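Recap from last week: sequence in, structure out.
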Amino acid sequence: MNVKRLAGKVALVTGGSRGAGRGIAVELGKAGAVVYVSGRSIRGAATHGFPGSIDETVEEIRKHGGEAYACRCDHTRDEETQALIERIRQEQGRLHILVNNVWGLHDLEVGLQPKPFWEYPLKLWDATFQSGIRAQIATSHYAIPLMLEADFGLIVHTTFWDQNKYLGTFYYDLAKNAINRTVFGFAHDLKNTNITALAVSPGWMRTELVLRHFQTDEEHWQGVDDLKNTESPYYVGRAVSALAGDREVHLKNGQVLQVGELAREYGFTDIDGRVIPPFLL
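Predicted structure tokens:
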């Protein structure tokens, strides 16, 4: 496989400071794409003191020989999102890959335990819909006109999906299914263009926040029984990279795709060599 199969492509990954966003940005960069990494966390000023920043993600891409740019952006502010797309237009003149990964739920210190929705604060709506779904739609709103000028377009949303099962809590379930329906609607409106819209559903990822919760790190997680079936954020990154390099990806327009199934289809593994099956509830 040509590791630079995305050479000449320009990508924007939102919410790229940590977790899935970081893994996706790094794998796109390793495959040769020019990657713009957006988020609120910069070195020395991370959101809520979380580990990771857009600067560290860009550094990792560059260590692998890739080209990347850190772009501080609060995607709940339309003017900042619009300015970011304009920056890409001015610097690159095109945009081929958009990964909508920005998500606001981590802003709230609310543990999502199964209980009736009325026992949760209404601010969960803002965290999942205003800071999540609306921010993603707004990014696409400004990005699609630039993508239409390119010879290829792929919009990827990160989500979670398990055969229409209830996802445990009302706001999380509602938001993830809204993302999935967003992709379905995008695909309908984009059907006569060269842009494909789809969603990818990873399993339980060993994000920086998950590792911190279990008081471990990427070098020692194997010693934690609860993490034995987890996957690294680079697993979903490799899925998105494979999709972006697939000339027949338009056949998947509007679909929600599980990373474990994509690993089998495209023949990639996680960073430890495992092919991890789809995560099932």
